[in-house]
């Protein structure tokens, strides 16, 4: 049995129950299935009644509480009730009464039995003559019989089968009342011993109860009391109604014999003529004699209430049968959108799969909010109306259960479905059955905005889910299924669409293509003053999303501005773009309750996602703070591990959360299983976070996730570092909250990113990141912390590779000194600092200091780390370079060859450190005039570096410069010049015109010109190199002296 909805107004109530005593009302109230008390309904002016309202079974019921007993009070309550609730069709007077011990047919009536009135006799209404009382019983004075509806129903209920059903229902509902122990209704059977019927002539002897007064007169034998399974019995008959309490057995029997009544009560006569249908149902609490007692009142009230609810189960109100209207209906709340453009493929697909062929009875369109699903459905509906005018079209708003019911109500009323006027009819199954009937004809139903699965399907709530729909769920069962009808669903939620189409894959509505976007803009803006390039740019900026494009054109037109001005506004900042997306506007085909602004539309989706799965809401919040493309799942796994606190099933939760985000078209997954997000959606998500006050929380979590996952920028991690770099940029932009953990995480990320830039040869970027890392670490952990020292040493190394040797030396000396003090002379960190410092000395041409320091580093590294440790090999390569720079070729070669072999073994032949050692060895060969060996090794190094590091990496350029020198030394001027010119241009671009390596390549090119006898070009270039080297390196730097010597020979 379907429960009714809360009535909109008091006019929507059709059943009234009237009770004289509070204990009678308590029993009725206990059988309410729903209570509609909050907010309360108003009353008609002058109505002094008190009411309880709710639902009993399938009916909305008002319970009227009488202030006192009697016909007059009942008449007043009935009149007021009719004024406040004008559409009451049936009134039930429920309560207790006194009974005649036997019916006219001889059936025993026991205490606790129930009497259903077949007519009211006003036994005290008449004339008191001197010798006797004469009751007025003429036609005009009589209350008359019950209405034909009541008489017919009573005749049905007296039949054997229906009487048994009524009796069984009474027992069932009585058990319900007894089970509500919290209400303390005291509705239990008082016991056979309490059911005493004295002979009519024996009168009560005192003012107390029979037990207190000692009544011991003769009792009348009762056969039914001897039965084993004694149950309340239902009797049908006339009831005497008056303002006098009957407490005389002799008078009782006399009136009963004269009028053939079975009971006495005091309210029925007052209510009888006030409503279209009235039935009096009373439970027997005494025998209407002087031995009257209240012991049986609560039980009798309970049996009466139970019988009242059983009676309502059989009550079917009469409603007029309206003539059925034939012909198709077109119930769509929107006009045709004359601005609709494009979507040809989608429309053709719908035309092929729905009507006229109807190969599928259900199809769902899914996609991002504002993508145009409703517009496609609307356009198809108008096409269908034109192409197939014999097909009806019904539009059902389904954003929530209330809108769904409202739409079905409108269909029932517009189509005059039989039974729609019955206030007690449940219209949902009524409309479903009518649509499934063949007389309805062919039809299409559009279920629009069906975004919430729980509205349509009851389902268990996930621990991570904040439930949504409550009692209005499972509406999916009211969607009609038949061969002559079809359903088109629009939804943001693919999962909902999949279930509504019973497993048929939904059709995705994606963003428009360039042509469709331009067509839409032209349709809304017109052709005057339109520049095609600007339209293409606007479409691209707004990602070809229809609602965003329409919103833009509305803003342009309302503010009498231009496309160019709008582009300028959205390009000013992300915040300006989000503000424009939040502008309200009007358009055809948007529901009045649906947000019009793009931002609000998407925020509604976010709220639905969060309601459906709280963890999906967290994931949405988190990923909006990464870069919008290629978001790796490992970030989400890390976040989940941090949040789950020992819970299991992390991967399952992530999969389900991502499934919901994909279903709402918020994210997409690429072939590498990374996630992508629309830029505009990302910006609006951030606004949503700000509005909820959770931006700072999730920004911190995003920073922690990337910081923990981003690896140290070593050669082996270069691919991962490059892939994660955009996300590092994104989270490092977030505001510093001052949290120590977040600041350490930020410093760690800056450091790892700097190392990546370092291996890429992007020294300026490396410097910026490493400087930020160092400043944070110094502030949070102090100068002496190992992490701070590592960062300091790395920054010194970066300075050195930029040719900023004074800064590199100052910082390097400080790092080495603190490392020795804090970590000790033999700590790997200290050795690294010393090796870097030695490199700085070497680049300044301070060979003796370099050798002294690096020899010490090599010795300690061998002892502490071992001969084949990468750190030891790096310092030995540094020493071999020092020997080479000092002209100690044999020592340099011997050590260099060994280092190359070891590095190949330990690091691999393509590791940057291995290639650097090979490049140094090639230089040593070249300096010895062993051009062939130098060339062979140099060519190999260049080829590998191009493949591994890229053509423009500083390390690749340095090796190419060496190879150009080798060509020049062999007299291969053309090759040397071609390669040398390219290297100079690339170094200027990558390192800058004053970098020492750039100056070295220029000096080498000058030598090539000079050897070809091109003195003027050599001189011009040589003068420039000398001037810059003096400025950058100083007059006495070996490189400056070499360039001066070259110039002198030119």
TrEMBL record:
Domain Nucleoside phosphorylase: 15-271
Pfam family, any one: PNP_UDP_1
GO molecular function: catalytic activity
Alphabetized InterPro entries for the sequence: NLR-like, Nucleoside_phosphorylase_d, Nucleoside_phosphorylase_sf, P-loop_NTPase, TPR-like_helical_dom_sf, TPR_rpt
Domain of life: Eukaryota
Record's protein name: Nucleoside phosphorylase domain-containing protein
Listed GO biological process terms: nucleoside metabolic process
């Amino acid at each position: 049995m379907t429960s009714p909805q809360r009535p909109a107004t008091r006019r929507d109530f059709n059943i009234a129950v009237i009770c004289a005593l509070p204990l009678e009302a308590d029993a009725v109230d206990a059988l309410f299935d729903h209570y509609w008390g909050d907010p309360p309904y108003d009353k008609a002016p002058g109505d002094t009644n008190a009411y309880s309202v709710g639902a009993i079974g399938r009916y909305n019921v008002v319970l009227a509480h009488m202030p006192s007993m009697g016909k007059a009070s009942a008449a007043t309550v009935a009149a007021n009730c009719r004024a406040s609730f004008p559409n009451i069709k049936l009134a039930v007077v429920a309560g207790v009464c006194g009974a005649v011990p036997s019916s006219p047919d001889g059936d025993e009536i026991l205490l606790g039995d129930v009497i259903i009135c077949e007519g009211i006799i006003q036994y005290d209404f008449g004339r008191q003559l001197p010798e006797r009382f004469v009751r007025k019983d003429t036609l005009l004075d009589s209350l008359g019989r019950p209405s034909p509806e009541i008489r017919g129903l009573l005749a049905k209920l007296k039949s054997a089968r229906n009487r048994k059903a009524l009796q069984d229902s009474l027992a069932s509902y009585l058990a319900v009342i007894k089970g509500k122990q919290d209400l303390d209704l005291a509705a239990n059977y008082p016991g056979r011993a309490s059911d005493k019927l004295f002979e009519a002539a024996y009168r009560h002897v005192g003012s107390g109860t029979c037990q207190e007064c000692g009544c011991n007169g003769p009792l009348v034998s009762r056969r039914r009391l001897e039965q084993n399974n004694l149950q309340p019995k239902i009797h049908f008959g006339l009831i005497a109604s008056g303002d006098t309490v009957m407490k005389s057995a002799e008078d009782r029997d006399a009136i009963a014999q004269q009028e053939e009544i079975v009971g006495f009560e005091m309210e029925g006569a007052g209510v009888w003529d006030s409503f279209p249908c009235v039935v009096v149902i009373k439970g027997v609490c005494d025998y209407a004699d002087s031995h009257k007692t209240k012991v049986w009142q609560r039980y009798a009230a309970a049996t009466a209430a139970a019988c009242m609810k059983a009676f309502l189960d059989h009550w079917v109100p009469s409603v007029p049968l309206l003539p059925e209207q034939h012909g198709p209906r077109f119930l769509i709340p929107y006009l045709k959108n004359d601005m609709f453009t494009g979507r040809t493929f989608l429309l053709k697909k719908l035309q092929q799969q729905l009507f006229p062929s109807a190969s599928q009875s259900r199809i769902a369109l899914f996609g991002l909010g504002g993508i145009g699903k409703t517009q496609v459905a609307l356009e198809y509906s108008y096409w269908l109306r034109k192409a197939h005018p014999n097909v009806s079209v019904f539009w059902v708003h389904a954003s929530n259960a209330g809108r769904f019911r409202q739409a079905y109500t409108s269909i029932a009323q517009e189509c005059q479905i039989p039974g729609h006027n019955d206030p007690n009819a449940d219209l949902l199954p009524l409309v479903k059955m009518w649509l499934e009937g063949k007389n309805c004809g062919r039809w299409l139903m559009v279920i629009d905005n069906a975004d919430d699965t729980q509205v349509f399907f009851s389902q268990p709530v996930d621990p991570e889910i904040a439930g949504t729909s409550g009692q209005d769920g499972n509406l999916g069962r009211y969607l009609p299924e038949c061969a002559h009808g079809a359903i088109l669903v629009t939804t943001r939620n693919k999962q909902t669409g999949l279930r509504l189409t019973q497993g048929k894959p939904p059709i995705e509505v994606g963003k428009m293509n360039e042509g469709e976007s331009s067509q839409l803009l032209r349709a809304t803006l017109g052709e005057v003053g339109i520049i095609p390039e600007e339209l293409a740019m606007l479409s691209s900026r707004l990602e070809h999303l229809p609602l965003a494009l329409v919103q833009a054109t509305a803003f342009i037109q309302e503010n009498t501005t231009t496309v160019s001005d709008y582009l300028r506004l959205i390009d000013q900042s992300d915040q300006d773009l989000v503000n424009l997306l939040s502008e309200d506007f009007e358009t055809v085909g948007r529901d009045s309750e649906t947000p019009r602004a793009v931002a609000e539309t998407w925020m509604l989706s976010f709220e639905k996602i969060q309601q459906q799965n709280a963890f999906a809401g967290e994931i949405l919040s988190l990923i909006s703070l990464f870069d919008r493309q290629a978001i790796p799942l490992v970030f989400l796994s890390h976040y989940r591990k941090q949040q789950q606190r020992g819970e299991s099933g992390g991967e399952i939760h992530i999969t389900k959360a991502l499934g919901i985000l994909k279903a709402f078209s918020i994210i997409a997954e690429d072939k590498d299983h990374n996630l992508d997000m629309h830029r505009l959606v990302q910006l609006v998500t951030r606004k949503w976070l700000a509005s909820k006050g959770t931006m700072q929380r999730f920004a911190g979590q995003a920073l922690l996730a990337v910081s923990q996952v981003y690896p140290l920028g070593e050669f082996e991690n270069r691919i991962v570092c490059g892939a994660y770099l955009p996300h590092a940029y994104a989270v490092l932009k977030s505001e510093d909250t001052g949290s120590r953990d977040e600041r350490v995480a930020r410093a760690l990320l800056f450091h790892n990113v700097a190392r990546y830039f370092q291996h890429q040869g992007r020294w300026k970027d490396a410097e910026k990141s490493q400087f930020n890392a160092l400043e944070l670490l110094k502030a949070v952990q102090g100068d002496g912390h190992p992490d701070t020292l590592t960062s300091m040493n790395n920054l010194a190394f970066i300075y050195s590779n930029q040719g900023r040797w004074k800064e590199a030396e100052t910082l390097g000396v400080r790092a080495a000194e603190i490392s020795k003090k804090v970590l000790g002379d033999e700590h790997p960190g200290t050795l690294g600092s010393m090796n870097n410092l030695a490199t700085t000395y070497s680049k300044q041409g301070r060979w003796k200091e370099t050798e002294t320091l690096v020899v010490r580093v090599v010795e300690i590294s061998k002892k502490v780390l071992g001969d084949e440790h990468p750190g030891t090999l790096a310092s030995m390569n540094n020493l071999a370079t020092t020997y080479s720079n000092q002209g100690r070729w044999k020592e340099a070669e011997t050590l260099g060859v060994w280092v190359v072999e070891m590095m190949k073994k330990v690091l691999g032949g393509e590791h940057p450190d291995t290639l650097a050692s090979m490049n140094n060895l090639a230089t040593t060969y070249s300096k010895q005039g062993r051009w062939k060996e130098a060339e062979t090794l140099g060519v190999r190094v260049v080829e590998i570096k191009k493949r591994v590091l890229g053509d423009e990496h500083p390390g690749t350029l340095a090796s190419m410069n060496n190879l150009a020198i080798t060509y020049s030394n062999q007299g291969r001027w053309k090759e040397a010049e071609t390669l040398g010119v390219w290297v100079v241009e690339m170094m200027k671009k990558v390192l800058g015109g004053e970098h020492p390596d750039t100056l070295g390549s220029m000096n080498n090119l000058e030598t090539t010109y000079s050897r070809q006898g091109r003195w003027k070009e050599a001189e011009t270039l040589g003068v420039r190199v000398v001037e810059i080297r003096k400025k950058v390196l100083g007059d006495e730097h070996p490189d400056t002296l070499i360039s001066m010597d070259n110039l002198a020979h030119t």
